[in-house]
Design a protein that fits this description.
alpha+beta, globular, 10% helix, 60 residues
Amino acid sequence: MEELIYLDTYVVQQDMRIRLPKAILSNLGIDKGKTKLDIYLNSADRVLVLKVHCENGGNQ
């Protein structure tokens, strides 16, 4: 797996929301309320991966 960078720890909310650290706004260049994230699960390692969604299907 690629090297991970720890940002912060948050509790999963009752309605299953998670808060994302503000650092992702500047580091990934995303916009609140506009940018979509793809969610991937690696169940063997118990890891969730969020990737910025690319509308044209390519990698971003």
